[in-house]
Design a protein that fits this description.
Layout lengths: L8 H16 L8 H13 L4 E5 L3 E7 L7 E7 L26 H17 L7 E7 L7 H7 L8 E8 L7 E2 L3 E2 L3 E10 L3 E2 L9 H18 L7 E10 L5 E2 L2 E10 L2 H22 L2 E7 L6 E2 L1 H15 L4 E2 L11 H7 L2 E7 L21 H30 L1
Parallel strand pairs: 3-4, 3-5, 5-16, 6-15
Antiparallel strand pairs: 1-2, 2-4, 6-16, 7-14, 8-12, 8-13, 9-11, 10-12
Helix pairs in contact: 1-3, 3-9, 5-6, 7-9
Length: 402
């Protein structure tokens, strides 16, 4: 394996400054205009050509060979923020009210730019082509699919990405083949009745009572209807209903998320959600409707790509710092759309914060240890090279067997 040098102290400072700039100026899904401009400017300073406005606000940059039949590896970073009011008190806290980088995407962008710098320094020796994907709208809007639709991964043979994870220490990298995240479906339940006076419940139907019983009953699906070895979560996230203390509501709307890790469990849970919703009609004399919005498919890491990632991780942080993920996360990731098209692997970069122990991802107090930035950049760049070498070896073997 052609080993790259670690990021220099100047490059580490540069990555940190980029991360902090992006953290101060977060942008929501498909509104990452200033973020994209910042990325494009940094790429152009390095002499790396890029295509802008891919999948609306995404960027695709290319390094290495221009031969159409050359092996090609893609590296991806997501770049959108969340609709959260920041409460970290950091000197570089968000300057945009109600918008915050609370999932580490600012760090992902900085890492991929750092990897670009490391690869650019070795561009003449690259055994193929590297595509850099700066993707919009990972947080629930599925920006990956737009980049695929607009040719962002055309010709790519393998793809890699990483996600900052505060459950693991700095210098730890988590690599796991197979399924590592969940289906992310969202549902809406509407309950309607005639409404009425709060003092005369016998004259009407109580939508709030029906909603309360339904919310409690739904938890029985996971507890009693799914296989104990197949993880599933049903969460009701919002309840909207009622207008006054002495009025029986005529409408309640519930929204929630269903997280599952197998097609069979997913189908069974959806059927049970519909069945229990419909049962409220007989129990409480109300009208109901159930709708489901299909979310992201699960992330399923390719075994071959995972072996490459594990090999590189061992060289970057040492074999004792390479962790496995025996249980899938029930979080979602639209990197899954890339993996439906191309073999690849998503890893996790340990970034445990030394002080904020009670501020997980999507918390208004979220932050991570910036020492993860050079680790992530070095891993991504080195993985691209090792994957290109692997793909080249496969091509040579195929030619020899002809």
């Amino acid at each position: 394996m052609n080993l790259l040098p670690k990021p220099s102290s100047a490059q580490i400072t540069w990555m940190r400054d980029i991360r902090r700039h992006l953290h101060q100026h977060p942008e929501l899904a498909f509104a990452e205009f200033a973020t994209a401009r910042c990325i494009a400017e940094e790429l152009k300073k390095m002499g790396i050509p890029c295509r802008e406005q891919v999948g609306r606000t995404g960027i695709v940059a290319t390094l290495g060979s221009r031969e159409t039949d050359a092996p090609c590896v893609a590296l991806r970073a997501d770049m959108d923020a969340l609709p959260i009011l920041e409460q970290t008190g950091l000197p570089f806290a968000s300057e945009v009210p109600g918008v915050m980088h609370a999932c580490g995407h600012d760090g992902h962008v900085a890492m991929l730019l750092g990897a670009a710098a490391l690869l650019k320094a070795q561009e003449a020796e690259l055994p193929g082509r590297v595509v850099l994907l700066f993707q919009p709208a990972e947080e629930g809007d599925g920006g990956a699919q737009g980049m695929i639709d607009e040719g962002g991964v055309d010709g790519v043979n393998m793809i890699f990405a990483g996600h900052i994870d505060r459950l693991y220490g700095v210098q730890e990298i988590v690599v796991q083949p197979g399924l590592i995240s969940a289906y992310t479906d969202e549902f809406t339940i509407e309950i309607r009745g005639p409404g009425g006076h709060g003092a005369k419940p016998q004259e009407t139907s109580d939508c709030i009572l029906a909603a309360a019983q339904l919310i409690t009953s739904l938890q029985g699906i996971v507890a009693r209807e799914t296989h104990p070895c197949c993880p599933a979560v049903i969460t009701v996230g919002t309840i909207h209903g009622g207008t006054a203390a002495n009025v029986i509501a005529s409408e309640v709307i519930l929204t929630g998320t269903l997280r599952t890790t197998s097609p069979e469990t997913r189908a069974g849970c959806l059927a049970s959600l519909q069945r229990m919703t419909l049962a409220m009609e007989q129990l409480h004399r109300v009208a109901t409707s159930f709708t489901c919005a299909e979310g992201y498919p699960p992330v399923i890491n390719d075994p071959g790509a995972a072996r490459i990632a594990a090999e590189v991780a061992a060289t970057i942080v040492g074999p004792d710092k390479v962790r496995s993920q025996p249980q899938p996360s029930l979080g979602g990731e639209d990197f899954s759309f890339f993996l439906q098209r191309i073999p690849g692997c998503l890893v996790r970069f340990g970034a445990k914060h030394t002080e904020l122990h009670d501020a997980p991802a999507h918390s208004p107090r979220f932050d991570f240890d910036e020492a993860v930035l050079p680790t992530g950049a070095h891993f991504l760049a080195q993985t691209a090279i090792r994957a290109l070498e692997h793909l080249g070896e496969m091509l040579d073997s195929a030619h020899d067997s002809e």
